[in-house]
Write a structure and sequence with these properties.
Blueprint: H1 2-7, H2 25-33, E1 61-65, E2 73-82, E3 85-90, E4 99-102, E5 108-109, H3 113-117, E6 136-137, H4 149-152, E7 179-180, E8 189-193, E9 215-217, H5 220-233, H6 238-245, E10 251-257, E11 260-266, H7 275-286, E12 293-294, H8 310-320, H9 331-337, H10 353-368, H11 378-388, H12 396-401, H13 406-410, H14 414-420, H15 425-444
Antiparallel strand pairs: 1-2, 1-5, 2-3, 3-4, 6-7, 8-9, 8-12, 10-11
């Protein structure tokens, strides 16, 4: 049994509490199981042989596990049959909770299985119920023992004799409170604005109108609309801003300004990390600093907009560094994914702020090591992050603890950093942006 386990060790998923580098999981598992007492295979019940043919028919009743809340087993009906698959439809509920499964799935049971096994059974829902009430766990169905007489007797009959407290005079008690076990909605994401960075686009934006408190929403698409509406509200020339926003490629979205509705295009936003792409596009379109938009509370001074020598050093670094690639991307993707200096005319003279950020990252990578990024060591990765964004240097110990070398760094994503490394959303998205820029540079080379 242990030999079979060792042969399939790569198929064993990491535990939720494992916070080391994912590449060290197989060795960690071997060390943990070395000398451990294994449960013998003979104490396990053999899996029974299932039917070889799908005998289900449309309209047959069964009991099925609700995959969105696996602790619930509900009344269901076979809605369709296709080859070895059946379509499980839950009685009294809308079709959003139905699913397809194999005819020998462990998630379906014959009618009466819950009664024999003692598992609580969910009753059919009401057809006029909305999806918000779908996942309501009913404690009244779990209790198999009758209530004690003291608990069922109404308070108003305390002066009557015990015989008068019969079920004839007992009024129906209100239904017990239902505990909502539905998945919580995603937490809202807040986009912060930095007024200092709006000075670069002073002809278009009024820094005093920029909302310092920012805007928030739990849906990335709606949050992007609110950001654009806030930019329009702070604009000196809304018509000019709308004309520039019209050059963005993507999906059509309706926004409102001064009681009027306008249709613009925004890049596809599926998750919160896609907002960084939107920030770059807006900064290049408006001609302002890219640090005007962020997911964290902005610092007092912007290192690129500060009149002290730092911005000039960044511009000189970008002008002296060679372009990462000669090939120019398509026009519809240039605003979102360009890793080369923008050649088209911008409303402000000089190098665009998005170009400065990309060039700074490329220059920092060249200063760290002449080796390819996938051959970097842990300290080289840390030096690259600190050289690109000094604010991220506080997370250096995390990279040492989890042994993030060049290969692991190129595989990082926001979910992995937040779940296993304990990073917050803002730093995780910044590091994801550095990884994407580094990957673009590597492919260009």
């Amino acid at each position: 049994m242990f030999k079979h386990f060792l042969s399939d060790i790569n198929a064993v998923a990491t535990t939720s509490g494992f916070r080391m580098n994912a590449s060290s999981w197989p060795m960690f598992l071997l060390k943990t199981l070395n000398g451990a007492e294994m449960a013998p295979a003979k104490i396990f019940q053999k899996e029974p042989a299932g039917p070889k043919v799908n005998y289900f028919q449309v309209g047959q009743k069964l009991e099925a596990v609700d995959k969105k809340n696996p602790q619930l087993i509900c009344c269901a009906t076979v809605g369709a049959v296709k080859n070895d698959q059946i379509h499980v439809t839950f009685d009294g509920w809308r079709g959003a909770f139905d699913y397809w499964c194999r005819y020998d799935s462990r998630d379906i049971f014959p009618v009466g299985w819950c009664g024999k096994s003692g598992h609580p059974m969910q009753p059919p829902g009401q057809k006029n119920n909305s999806g918000a009430n779908r996942f309501r766990f009913r404690p009244s169905l779990i209790a198999s023992m009758p209530l004690a007489p003291a608990a069922t007797a109404p308070a108003s009959s305390s002066s009557a004799p015990a015989a008068s407290a019969a079920p004839i005079k007992r009024e129906p008690s209100p239904p017990p409170a239902e505990a909502d076990t539905s998945a919580p909605p995603p937490p809202p994401v807040t986009v912060r604005f930095r007024r200092q960075c709006a000075l670069a686009a002073f002809a278009l934006l009024d820094p005093t109108r920029v909302p310092e408190q920012g805007v928030e929403d739990s849906q990335p698409r709606q949050l992007a609309k609110k950001v654009v509406q806030a930019v329009l509200a702070a604009s000196r020339k809304p018509d000019t801003v709308l004309a520039r926003l019209g050059t963005i490629r993507g999906e059509e979205s309706a926004i409102t300004h001064d009681g009027n509705t306008y249709t613009i295009k925004l890049p596809q936003l599926v998750k919160a990390s896609d907002l960084l792409q939107l920030f770059q596009i807006l900064a290049q379109t408006l001609g302002c600093c890219q640090n005007m938009f962020g997911l964290e509370q902005p610092a007092k001074d912007c290192p690129q907009c500060d009149p002290r020598p730092r911005p000039s050093a960044a511009v000189s670094a970008s002008s002296s560094s060679p372009p990462p690639a000669k090939r120019r991307p398509p026009a519809e993707q240039e605003a979102a994914t360009s890793t080369t200096p923008c050649e088209k005319d911008t409303p402000t003279s000089g190098v665009g702020m998005g170009t400065v950020v990309v060039a700074t990252a490329v220059a920092a990578g060249a200063e760290v090591s002449r080796q390819p990024p996938n051959e970097w060591g842990i300290e080289e990765v840390i030096r690259f992050i600190e050289a690109t964004d000094p604010c991220l240097g506080v997370h250096a110990d995390l990279f040492r603890k989890h042994e993030i070398d060049g290969k692991a760094f190129l595989l990082l994503n926001s979910d992995m950093m937040m779940k296993y490394m304990g990073l917050k959303l803002g730093p995780a998205l910044k590091i994801c942006n550095l990884v994407s820029k580094l990957k673009g540079r590597r492919h260009a080379l």
